[in-house]
Amino acid sequence: MPSLYEWAVEGSCLAISFLGPDAETHAAASVQAYKKMGSPLYLRDPREQLSVLGAWKPIAGGPMPATSWGDGNQAPCYEPIFVYGCICQKPVAVSRHITALAPAASAAGG
Predict the structure, then answer these.
(1) pTM above 0.85, yes or no
(2) d(CA 5, CA 18)
(3) CA-to-CA distance for 75 and 72, rounded, in angstroms?
(4) Cα separation of 89 and 82, whole Å?
């Protein structure tokens, strides 16, 4: 994640999804597929996932069940929740943002 963060321009967003700890039980076939490929799969709860994000700043409420994504008018989910996601952003430096707005503000006023 640090390499992607350094590469991205300020204000960039990153959408990430991950499997929570219940995936071992409720998505066993997916977990086994990763194991067969020799690809590590780390099951983390949403709070643990925050530590992996590094300098990326979660927006829109941080990690949440994938079933709650959308327009907010979702029907209740009665299935086990094991997929989570969040949208993160590389913050814009405040001083750079203010400097960029200054010429536009003075042009609008005069």
Answers:
(1) no
(2) 18
(3) 9
(4) 24
